[in-house]
């Protein structure tokens, strides 16, 4: 699991690459905690994300809360989309294909 | 056309014409010259003869006598007459003294002006001391040369002919006869043109006619034939070409008409044959597809601790290998391998028949020998082509490891025990389909936990490499004796790689088929380390078993969720898993010694609880969705979670 961060005008983008397993979810949590206080929106680029487990999903919910809903998922791959659907997240998260 | 025959012939004719005309010019000129010289000599001789008789009665002294002028003048007149009649330029009479000085007596010319000049300049008493010519010396010796001597003096260029004359007193004089070279040349030229022109004209005409004839009779018809041939279209009937002649070129045209008809027949035949071949090829391809559809290129099954892996690498032509694995009503696992004689369509049909028959009879009799003997009877009864099949069939009871097997003329299998492969020595039996009384026998063997059997066809042992050596039974046994072979997939994959390496760059002549099975024990479990990274072996096991399948990651997800729950919440100190593949189902059984917990008893969170989902509850939801038939049990102080996954 690799996390690549870019920030512009208070909008942080995290690009997640690889498998977001239970172990890797801790890394994502760390990255979320490290966001600058003036960050008012978060974009998660999932174009290279191959796998996500419930621990990873929990971090998505945590991020959603932290950003007061200003969380966007982009480039979600079909396999990940399936898991989001199974979890019932599609209606709650802002997702861009 | 780069070099047309017409141009070549024309060129050759031109060269020949130039040569012939040149040669004939030369010859004509020489002829005319020779004729003229001969004529001149004849005239000169005649002139000398006539003059001799003219001077016959006259002595030279008489002529020198100036008192007898009438006599001199008459003689001169007569001489001039001769000169004119014979068309000579000059005639003269002179003596030569001992000092070789010429003393002219008289000279005359046929031309009037010249005559007056000659009378004055070379008249009586005129002398000349010009050196004597050979002709003059010869004449003085009375041995005249019958040839002219050319001189060029004040009288122009003349050819001189000299003859001796002896008068009545015995005094010697010379008679000179001059012929004008100019006159002679013009005569020669006239003669030459008279001879040469008609000949040249005739030759040119003849060549022209010959060329026109050649063009009309050969070149033009050849062009017509060539064009006709180049317009040949096999799809149309050839219209015979009529050149209105009976010559060789018409013969060529006729021969082509005949040939084009044959050609069309051949082309039609080839088209038909090709279409037939394509049809047959398609039929054969379809047969091959159906046949190989009945025998998977690779097969994998793991059930009740029996781990089976099969492989088949078909040869280019439809071969007759097959293998089959299935479970009997009794729970016994049947594994068999077979090789049908013959290839092609017949082999494919016979294989299909044999495969269904064997499966049917083994299910019916639950004993390999009884089943194979029954198959044999059936095959012998309905086998007009005299085909046969060799089979090795075994039944393994997973609960006890007892193996029953029977051999019908097939290669002996390998027993993989304690890291070493050794050949079993079954009763050889005999191929089925040949004799009514095959008398196949059942033998037994105890296949313990961790032991395996390798079945193969002769396509393996008789594979040929670049040095034309067989793969052979020893190489096969050595390959499987390296100590790493403890499961069926390793056995077949090792063999596949070894054969590929061995046969690199060589054609495969026969189907290559092998089946390996291992008794892994009914409860072959793998322990799991109780940490988050402890999931890795199970993740690998799942990905290996579902390689390339879309569901692989979902199965990993369900298992990860279950495993993480054990690690985080159960307080277990021991956990293990068991993986089984059976056809289209992969079953993962997770066991732990933690707190008793039925994951399916807990209520499932609704989607409305989204904002509380960061607290947990998603894992169970995933397990239920991905493995809807998952079940939990608590046995011997352990939680046992069984998750069957569809993998097709």
Can you describe what's shown?
- The complex is a heterodimer of chains A (97) and B (648).
- Chain A has 97 residues and is of the alpha/beta class.
- Chain A has three helices and five strands, in the order ββαβαβαβ.
- In chain A, strands 1-2-3-4-5 form a five-stranded mixed beta sheet.
- In chain A, a hairpin with a 2-residue loop joins strand 1 and strand 2.
- The longest helix of chain A is centred in the middle third of the chain and has 13 residues.
- Chain A starts with a strand and ends with a strand.
- In chain A, 34% of the residues are buried.
- The model of chain A has no long low-confidence stretch (mean pLDDT 91).
- Chain B is α+β, with helices and mostly antiparallel strands and 648 residues long.
- The radius of gyration of chain B is 64 Å and the shape is rod-shaped.
- Chain B folds into three domains: 139 residues, Beta-Lactamase (2-Layer Sandwich), CATH 3.30.450; 222 residues, PPM-type phosphatase domain (Phosphatase 2c, domain 1); 121 residues, Heat Shock Protein 90, CATH 3.30.565.10.
- In chain B, 44% of the residues lie in helices and 22% in strands.
- In chain B, helix 1 packs antiparallel against helix 6 and helix 8 crosses helix 9.
- Chain B is built from 15 helices and 22 strands.
- In chain B, strand 19 and strand 20 form a beta hairpin.
- A six-stranded antiparallel beta sheet of chain B has the order 3-2-1-6-5-4.
